[in-house]
Amino acid sequence: xxVSPGDLIDRFSIVKLKMxxxxxNFFAKEFQELxxxxxxxxxxxxxxxxxxxxxxHINSQIWLLESRIEKLADDWxxxxxxxxxxxxxxxxxQRTRMKNKIAKECGIGFLDKKRFYFRKRLPF
Length: 124
Fold this sequence. Notes:
The protein is mainly α. About 75% of the residues lie in helices and about 0% in strands.
């Protein structure tokens, strides 16, 4: 099964984060392969760079929030863990919307539909 452009760019931004924060050498090959696939997408280089930047920004926030949950779990701060998990959920919803936008703009891939349980914005 081919990977949609949105999923490909999302994955690329995550691998980029892993190279910066975990192990550059371990992820270098995957990074290069994903970069080559992204370059083959028939969309302007500027637009692809913007998409990578947008996904990178969102995935960086998720990375930090997931790290925060691990620290909060040590103290059993369940209320703050719940708030943080909801923030992650909102960021993941942004990722889904971005993937759908990319699928529409490229005319490749599929649209994903998530069910949003919260009809109004929560106070945190």
